[in-house]
């Protein structure tokens, strides 16, 4: 898609050092449609579900790749298929249930029938009735399958791509991100504990940026700071892969009594001696081979992996336009968790999600950002922190280098 | 009066008492008086806000998950003293109450709820949540307290965030 001249003047990037991001990146319909085409439907691995959600042949879930509805199903041979949830006859979204088990998918409108891999199997009255009507002699079922995506899985996590010649997931993630991915998905079998789903009136990229912005964590999330879980002096790392598209925000819980006085003064929220009535929620039970007690992995373009001490979850980003997206959370534990451990995960879950002490604040902040752009339009964002690290991995929390790296990648992918 | 009408009267009184409890509960949340809300629960009270999707699949994850009044108090404290969210007005509507006394003296109840939210930066009220309470009440010093309140909401999507409990 080449840009007409008037558009190339409209989508001007301010300066070449990536310290300013123009509002049109977040609010423009044409940019959004280009993202769907070039990113979500482009050369990316998109999260679509967990194998634990479809353990048996015939199990399926509805999911999305970008905004596009897809079905994720387990075929008779145990393989996983991902295909568009759109009947090739009259476009009806044929799979209606969020989840279930079927022998085949039957479109309710005219009963066109698809097998568990999304292949068109049967068309009623294909030969007409009494020699009249029906499809022409040249009609081939195999030419009328919904679009079927490439599928890969790793440690129980399912990814799909519109590109059928994608590199392996390991190459796509790179060794650093893969190591963090495998620290959370450590080989134990996953057990689904439930979902959260919410909408957010903001651009989908703001969610990535929020988790590539360790600066906000000690300032917005008073709860973390009040109870000494995350403070500016904590051992931490903002990891970015060489491409800049993926990242992992890492931190290690430390002893609140060892925080330097000048750091405390900067963090207005820090209150010594504040205690929870029931402090079990903040316990960290070591269970991972990792120096980090908290990691938040942003895996381009639609997956967040949350390992917040012992509360574990997937967040799937589903954009619905430039100004809104949906988040589907899948919280999990592991086979072999004791009942106590499961309840610990559930208690600690109060930190995250759309009612979480931290989660609700991120959601509110993202809404405020989008509102600011929509109501005072035509401006730009400033992401200048840590000029010593222009792009990529940073060892200080007070940095925006991972955001700059993400936009360097985004501009390449978008040719903008 | 005979025993049958005594029992009917007892049931009506209990129904009215729980109805009054719910009215009071809604009023506390509408005022966003979370410290008063904490007092609606028994010491070992359990409180969860869970999607119908999770509840029907026996998946335990809740938007809010509190085992005991300590955790409920921590939720109130965190929202009042640490959480950042935009200003809003709320109306909690509770209706269609049904009540069943149990042999052990506890009382099971259910009711429909709807929470309507008005943000100060959006013109229209919106339905934040709609669903049902499944409750267990006990008496503590004659007063009714919640031993369990499961708020099972029908919405598939929460709009932005659930800041004040249901």
Give the CATH architecture of the largest domain in chain A: Alpha-Beta Complex
Oligomer: heterodimer
The largest beta-sheet of chain A arranges its strands as 2-11-10-5-4-3-6
Largest sheet of chain A: 7 strands, antiparallel
Mean pLDDT over all positions of chain A: 93
pLDDT below 50 for ≥5 consecutive residues: which ranges of chain A? none
- The CATH superfamily label of the largest domain in chain A reads Naphthalene 1,2-dioxygenase Alpha Subunit, Chain A, domain 1
List how many beta strands of chain A DSSP finds: 19
- CATH class annotation of the largest domain in chain A: Alpha Beta
What is the residue-averaged pLDDT of chain B?
96
N-to-C SSE series of chain A?
HEHHEEEEEEEEEEHEHHHEEHEEEEHHEH
Written description of the protein model:
The complex is a heterodimer of chains A (416) and B (166). Chain A is an alpha+beta fold and 416 residues long. Chain A has eleven helices and 19 strands. A seven-stranded antiparallel beta sheet of chain A has the order 2-11-10-5-4-3-6, with no helix packed on it. In chain A, strand 8 and strand 9 form a beta hairpin. Chain A starts with a helix and ends with a helix. Chain B is an alpha+beta fold. Chain B has one domain: Roll (Nuclear Transport Factor 2, Chain: A), CATH 3.10.450.50. Chain B contains four helices and seven strands; from the N terminus they run H-H-E-H-E-H-E-E-E-E-E. Chain B has helices spanning 3-30, 34-38, 52-56, 69-82, and strands spanning 41-51, 64-67, 88-101, 107-119, 126-140, 143-153, 158-159. A six-stranded mixed beta sheet of chain B has the order 2-1-6-5-4-3. The longest helix of chain B is centred in the first third of the chain and has 28 residues, at 3-30. The chains are: A alpha+beta (416), B alpha+beta (166). The A-B interface holds A 98, 192-201, 220, 222-223, 226, 269, 276-278, 281, 326, 331, 342-343, 346-347, 349-350, 353-357, 359-361, 363-365, 367-368, 371 and B 49-51, 53-54, 57, 59-71, 73-75, 77-78, 81-86, 121, 156-163. Strand 12 (190-200) of chain A pairs parallel with strand 7 (158-159) of chain B.
